[in-house]
Amino acid sequence: MANAFFSDLLATISERGRTLLRRGDASDTKRDADGLLELCGALLSGRGEASGTAMAREVLDLYQELDAAGRRAFFEGLVRFFGPDRERLSKAIEQWRAKPSDEDASALHFASEPRRQELIRRLNRAPGGTGDLVKMRADLLGMMNGHTDLAALDRDVSHLLSSWFNRGFLVLRRIDWSTPANILEKIIRYEAVHEISDWDDLRRRIDPVDRRCYAFFHPAMVDEPLIFVEVALTETIPGAIAPLLAVDRQHLPIEKARTAVFYSISNTQRGLGGISFGSFLIKQVVEELRRELPKLDTFVTLSPVPGFMAWVKQDKELPLADEDREALKRLDDPKWFESPETAALLRGVLEPLAAYYFLRARTPKGRLIDSVARFHLGNGARLERINWMGDLSPKGVRESAGVMVNYLYRLDDIEKNHEAYANDGEVVASSAVKKLLKGEGRRLLDMRLS
After folding, report:
1. What is the CATH number of the domain that holds 114?
2. For a tag site, which of 17, 107, 315, 379 has the least CB within 10 Å?
């Protein structure tokens, strides 16, 4: 209710400001990228709170009217015309060089800030401004697509979004069948790991006694889940997804549950891509589950490996013997897993290769290739187990040859594991995974592992 009251108050202020603007013929603004940039300049020139809030809303509304070409021109204009004040920055640099001091360092810091950062802050004051800026960044990311001309703008937007969406602002809420329908509909729409086919499928995931769903919200976007986590309560650690999602599965009595399985974690806002919500989000869900169900003693994921097959197909320097490369050709048959002989042959190749993928393979910048691995290891998990044929859905076979993994969240080790990964890039893994890497599952070329 407090959020709704505050939003209504801002909307009232904004509407009164709009009235002032209309009296000043602000509605004559050109409805193209140039006109929008002029309006942004006026917004930065300094206005009263009411008129400034209304003008910010006007900028966001006019942006929505632009086509793709207009939006790109608008972004290019923000890069070209709303950078740092060069004269002010030059003076600050000269003062710092002449006599460095904390005061001069502070002046240099503020002088170097691009004007577009203050513009984004003012746009954020508009009613609904935060959500609109997230959508605007989604457009920006779509237009960058490897191009660097808009990178400076994206750095500024992501810098501010990182501040506004840090973990201290996020609210964890349980999602169940009593959750408002507009939020439940978004859970169906945004599910990115295991598609939810319809409302009955959703109910099977959130309503039974042995299922839970949690979502993180931001106070400025109260009806928009940012991340949601689907949880299965089980007796032991599962190695395959199909039994967890089966329509006719037997529900586990809650008193028998000892393991919480995070089997789907979805980030719903493309505009927040690459924005860290802070570490230990999963730890917050773990603590919530332990408060409700103190007998739970194991917290683990059942995670996809979405980048595995792309890496296998594109990396010409895989640590494989010639006969193993020949065996991989059998993956061209989409039904390879239906042949026990083929499945056994490929298991001997792919399990050790998966261990290498997680423990040794890196991008040219030294990062883990797999985004899911980066998320869980960054949250303090341990790579616990590689599950052969864990997901035989068409998507699972296509993206990971059916491989899934378990990441284990042990509360006493979360911070230590996080530090090892964040500071040293170390992947904390179980002995079972390390044994695969040493070649106890199949042949790996020793020269590649030295």
Report:
1. 1.20.140.90
2. 315
